[in-house]
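Re: Re: token formats

Sure, here are both.
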Amino acid sequence: MNKCQLFFASLLLVTQAAFAQNATYDQSTADSASTSEAVVSERFSGNGLSSLSEKIDINFLLRSSLELPSGSSNQASVRLNEARFEVRGTITPDLSYRVRYRLNRSSAHNSLDNAPGSIDHANVMYRFGNEKKWHLTVGKQSASVGSWEFDKNPTFEYQYTEFVNRQLNLFLLAMKLGYDITENHTFQLQLHNTFNNDFNGTFNAISYDKNGLRPSKTPLGLYVAWLGNMFDKRWQTFYSYNVSQFAAGKTDFAVSIGNQVVLNRFSGYLDLQSANMAVDYPNIGSSAANKIRASSPAFAPTFMQDINYKTAVLRADYEFVPKWFLTAKGFYETASHRADNGFGNNFRKNIGYLAGLEYKPIASQDMRLFTYYYYNTTRYSNAMAEVNANQELHLFSVGILYFVNAL
């Protein structure tokens, strides 16, 4: 951590000590990465001067492993998979903040939101209303997308789908208004930037032709989300609908349905997503399509239009004996081009599965030793298969993860 980061962390501590009121809140050490924090009601006590540790959480998220790949990559290495630093706490009973910095991500600023890609969270949340059921979150935050895969603490999610890793704008500048309908059900509206980089910068970064597209004057989106807990929180729902715009006159629509089961020794989730993208700025299918068109004398690479992405992902974790866990995950993703003279349905498929074993040596600590095998393949059909080779990856990994609640 450089001097600037140390200074920033110290400044937060000093500010908290100077201005925090008599308040405490309960916080799980296995904190998630995303939006479900709004479901949990914060509880405060006003008896005397609270200590600093009761008003602030400082967390480190770490995962490192030895990876032995084969297929598309054959170089073994010891990798730093996750390294994040987080500070979160309360200033008053109704006002809280959260800052999370990714230590292994570039600090270069995005061209639209002027925020570095290394910042996941930099926001404040204000609760208001007679019963404090309303809450407004402003600043850099996670997308309110119905995905338990994304919501899960990134320390514990070994491999991601392309939906999370490439398609979504995960951490964005936004204003989120939430309302706790009951103790177990929350409704959210999140107004956000569609993408963190501007229209021209996105095209110029990969030297793509605009193909007649123009930048939207309001490159914004809106998430509508519902988070629910049922059957004593054993069944948890996270459903969302999103409408957004990247290019003028081109509107994207997406729906995400996330269901999670949490029992004493078993947990699992099933996420289903479908997105109709007017412009393929994530560049998942476009790079493959450009290889087909490259033979044309007037060819200029560009983003595809009118593309549909679908994802289904299932994960299960089971503590079969105390301190020992089995984990398994599988996903199936498709890309379809439904425009006139398009490439048809399911022209690209991305399939993956993972099976692993975890050992938790210290019951009171979120630390685990792990090993897993991961397989991933990308396959093309129709005309795409003629110029795009199928890809495969086999990966064996062994390492350690640790969610450290330092304060």
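Second one below.
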Amino acid sequence: MELIADIFLVAGALGAGLYCFVLSRRLKRFTDLEKGVGGAVAVLSSQAEELKKSLDAARDASDQSSATLNALTERAESVAQRLELMMASLHDVVPQDEAAVEVSAEPEPTPVVAEDLPQTRDEPKVEDEPAAEPQSKKPGGLMFLRHNRSEASA
């Protein structure tokens, strides 16, 4: 009986040794840096580093864009306030009547006719063209309306 037990014990030890040998080879292939999971882990690690660098660059660019946009927004708000003040000051200006504008306009020059001038030289006659009337029609009515911001949020 002891002999049979020893044979089973040796057979078990040889089986365990063979299993360990096969497992060792598989583990070496698994952790190989070129073909196995080790290589995949190394590639993923380098890609993660590159992604982190590009993310940092994108964050820096967005921070700069945000700062520029904030500065432009503040500038636009100040310009809008000045424009609103100018528009409000235009309401104080009284528009002139069209009749008063026509009376104050300069009279049109009369064209020179060749018969009215004495014929002393053989120079070409130049007739003056009537000057175009400047249009001084002012817009009437309210163009912009300033809303109170406290009323808009309520």
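Residues 49-93 form one domain. The chain has a mean pLDDT of 76.
- S.
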